[in-house]
Write a structure and sequence with these properties.
The complex is a heterodimer of chains A (about 240) and B (about 150).
Chain A (H helix, E strand, L loop, with lengths): L6 E3 L4 H7 L5 E4 L5 H4 L6 E4 L8 E4 L2 E5 L4 H8 L3 H8 L4 H4 L4 H6 L6 H9 L2 E6 L2 E6 L8 E8 L4 E6 L9 E6 L4 E6 L5 E4 L7 H10 L8 H16 L1
Parallel strand pairs in A: 1-3, 2-3
Antiparallel strand pairs in A: 4-5, 5-8, 6-7, 6-8, 9-10, 10-11, 11-12
Chain B lengths: L1 E6 L2 E6 L6 H7 L18 E4 L2 E4 L12 E3 L12 H8 L9 H14 L5 H8 L10 H8 L2
Helix pairs in contact in B: 2-5, 3-4, 4-5
Classes of the chains: A alpha+beta (about 240), B alpha+beta (about 150).
The structure holds flavin-adenine dinucleotide and FE2/S2 (inorganic) cluster (2 copies).
Flavin-adenine dinucleotide binds next to strand 2, helix 2, helix 6 and strand 8 of chain A.
């Protein structure tokens, strides 16, 4: 029971949903795996957007589009052994949860321990986001967190990989490294405050990046900052041979 | 609030408070096979089938079940007429206290509905979100493998 909930709104349009989402006691609701587990007492109104966002994956010409309501399990099924399918699978040990958790919620939640989210940042997918009164397209690395994500769009032709390091396979990884072979962009997540990204040529990290990583990682029970920097280098060496 | 859905094969109209989860509703209907392990989505003791897929009922808000097909273990078998998975769990000794068992059986049933011949890896994956504190996983996996 989520005792603080007084209202559930099922708006007819994204515009209406956006208007309803204008105070701290309301929250957009899709898969609900984060929100219902948290049961924040501050939330009094759920704005259900499930009927407003697509839950299909479409491949047309050179482009793939994923509705924000698509679950991680659907992604795993569709992309199967591809890195997208694999990382959707690895983002959550529980199939029960993957059956419910949406990719829109994953991106909106800015989940840094999610391998699929790090991978989407490495691809630098475009998000279709409804802000104010219209849908705009913005790349995931530039998205400011405002609005309602309705779709994720990217080119079929992509050359990316991702790797996670965790204490045991079912635990969320404390470091996730994504790499785009085409743009040479490396994206790092895990038990971190947000994502770090930088360009890495030939698997070599320059001094500026070393400094950035030293600030980015903290010493904790998963290991020292140095150890984590080392893991990033190992991942990059594996990616770039 | 009101919602209409199919519960264990019967068309059901439910009235519920806005913050009610499917888990609470099911228990209130004396469907006691769904168990409260954590109410955080971590343990799978509250597993139900939603349109043939296993999900944790403690994370499902009641308003989202409109038009859906919800099943619990009560729909699979009964005391005198066990479902073949229930029988297999017994035969393999895959049940000790039984708290996790309804969830394990539903997660296994969901897997077998989509894949009649799952590999051990498929079974491990399907059961990974269902925690067991006494039997462990070897025997439940064996019970499903022998299907
Ligand atoms: C057992 C368990 C394990 C978990 N493990 C992990 C883990 O390892 N790593 C991890 O990162 N998370 C984890 N989570 C948290 C949760 O599953 C993720 O945050 C998930 O991405 C939430 O997706 P959802 O569709 O369920 O979103 P919801 O819970 O519905 O929403 C999440 C947030 O996103 C917003 N939102 C949802 N959809 C949209 C949209 N289309 N546009 C804009 N905003 C939107 C909501 O307002 C909310 O703030 C776990 C949760 C559980 C219960
Ligand atoms: S009680 Fe629902 S997952 Fe634990
Ligand atoms: S049999 Fe007791 S928790 Fe699994």
């Amino acid at each position: 029971m989520w005792a603080s909930i007084q209202n559930i709104e099922q708006p007819a349009t994204l515009l209406e949903a956006n208007k309803l989402n204008d105070n701290k006691n309301s929250v957009l609701f899709s898969g609900g795996t984060y929100l219902v587990a948290q049961k924040s007492k501050e939330v009094h109104t759920l704005i259900d957007i499930n009927h407003l966002i697509a839950s299909k994956i479409a491949e047309e010409g050179e482009q793939i589009s994923i509705g924000a309501g698509v679950t991680l399990q659907q992604m795993e099924g569709h992309f199967d052994k591809d890195v997208i399918g694999r990382s959707a699978h690895q983002s959550c040990y529980s199939k029960n949860i993957r059956n419910q958790r949406t990719i829109g919620g994953e991106i909106a939640q800015k989940s840094t321990t999610s391998q699929i989210n790090v991978l989407l940042h490495a691809i630098n997918v475009n998000l279709k986001v409804f802000v104010n009164d219209r849908t705009t397209e913005v790349d995931i690395n530039s998205w400011d967190g405002e609005g309602i994500i309705s779709e994720i769009v990217f080119a079929k032709d992509r050359n990316v990989d991702v790797k996670g390091y965790s204490v045991i396979p079912s635990a969320p990884p404390f470091i996730v490294v994504g790499y785009n072979y085409t743009t040479k962009m490396c994206v790092i997540g895990g038990r971190t405050n947000g994502f770090a990204n930088f360009v890495v040529e030939d698997g070599k990290i320059d001094e500026a990046v070393e400094e950035k990583l030293a600030e980015f990682f903290a010493d904790d029970h998963h290991g020292s900052c140095n150890y984590k920097r080392h893991l990033v280098k190992v991942a990059l060496r594996d990616f770039t041979g | 609030m009101k919602v209409t859905f199919t519960l264990n094969g019967k068309e059901t109209k439910a009235e519920f408070a806005p913050g009610e989860t499917l888990f609470h509703y099911l228990r209130s209907q004396e469907i006691y096979s769904v168990k409260n392990g954590c109410e955080l989505g971590e343990c799978g003791a509250c597993t139900a089938l939603v349109d043939n897929k296993a999900q944790n009922s403690c994370l499902i808000m009641m308003h989202t079940v409109e038009g859906k097909k919800i099943e619990t273990v009560e729909n699979l078998g009964s005391k005198n007429n066990l479902h073949h998975l229930q029988q297999k769990f017994l035969d393999e000794g895959a049940v000790q206290c039984g708290y996790c068992t309804p969830g394990m059986i539903l997660a296994s049933e969901a897997l077998l509905r989509e894949n009649k011949q799952p590999s051990t890896e498929d079974i491990r994956d399907a059961l990974a979100g269902n925690l067991c504190r006494c039997t462990g996983y070897v025997k439940p996996i064996k019970a499903v493998s022998h299907e």
